[in-house]
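Hi R.,

Here's the chain you asked about this morning:
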Amino acid sequence: MSKTFREVKLPLKRKDLMPVKEDNLDDVKKIHPNPYTYQELKQVFEENGLSINHLYMAKEGLYPFWYIDGFVFAPVTSLNPSVFQLHLNGDNVEAQKKRLQRYWEKGNYSALFSEVDSQFGFDTFFEHIEEIPEEKQYEIFRKLYTRNEYGFQDIDQTLIRKLFSLNPDKSFLKHIPVEPDGYVTIYRGMQDHSASPEEAYSWTLDFEVAQRFALRFNSTESSIYQARVLVEDIVDYVGDGNIGDRGEEEILVIPETLRDVKNMGFYNLSDSLFEELNRAGIVEMYQEYAHQRLKGSWFHKPDGIHGKRHIKRVLFLSLIMSYLDDLSEEDRQILIYASLYHDIGREHDWEDEEHGLQSVYKMEELKLTTRGLNNEEVRILKFIMKYHCIRDEVGLRKIKTQKGIQDKERAIDLFKRFKDCDNLDRVRLGDLDLNYIRTETGKKMMMIAYQLLRNIE
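And the predicted structure, written out as tokens:
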């Protein structure tokens, strides 16, 4: 999905396309095989009222070819004449060409650029920018920007700043939440292909939007940055409900005006971390418990939202947390058993404060292993299982009365850790709230939770 999204949204430039000519058709066929000669293709074009001189091959993007004539950019999916004839018609192309040309001549740039194919919108705009009145340039730029997935790194930096300086409308400032010192806190979600924070013009007021951008292509090199900017240094706010508002609470800024830029420090299940986990035996441990010891027969609905896939993700999250915080083997083992058994007592998927206790009873009834734990550790395990689905304050109050647990601090620590790992998998329900994550490590594992959701079956 992410690859297709990029191909559909990828901005294209006419200079990067290759005109299809008689002397390069063999090169074209190496990339897009077809049995037709140049003359045969030329004849098909002419029969449809078109000229093959306007045919270009794209090296990137979803469509292999484009028919370009004036402001008309028409995608061509194949050079097979039978397919081609269904997509292009000379009369339609000529009518669109004349209509767009009239828009241009009358200065109706809004109508013109709303019809120019979005993948070529910016290229066309920059090609003609000197012919467009200066007072119209930012308005057109803004509309094109909100229609496209266009990276500012592809635009001449001097030109960006010139365009930003042409925005006369500052009415958006009334929508901005300003802190007492005049600054605004903003966020940016990034992946390995994103512009660096020092070069980034696009940020957001909404942490959840930044999170979505950091994770949308299933990257394992995601990050979220936080920064502050003086309200008067904000160039534009694309989140005021006006045309172009994409629901992203987007802020446009000049990078040099940013202050206190910092990486928020979320962990990723990157290649480097995965290799660390592999060397430490965590991956092998996960595979053993997830694929050999975990049984679907334990669960009322093995394929439900509290079934095996949920258990696998909580298990891996617990193992990763135990590695990151260098827990003892015994503490890690408690988290492993809690991950495996905590939902086996469920008989439905609705809210149920009793299923923790029922899971303890079922663990005992099935004589499920707690090998490697001493008596106190088994009692800690049962305490975690019983109270994992009940409000924290109840569990923390009850731990004080557990006579069989001498090390209360240890029990509380593991209780909080397990509840975090279980809660992190709320990403599957779409309602994870980091305000309810208790441990610092848990708060930094949000991206790993999303990555596991997408990659563990």
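The radius of gyration is 29 Å.

Let me know if you need anything else.
M.
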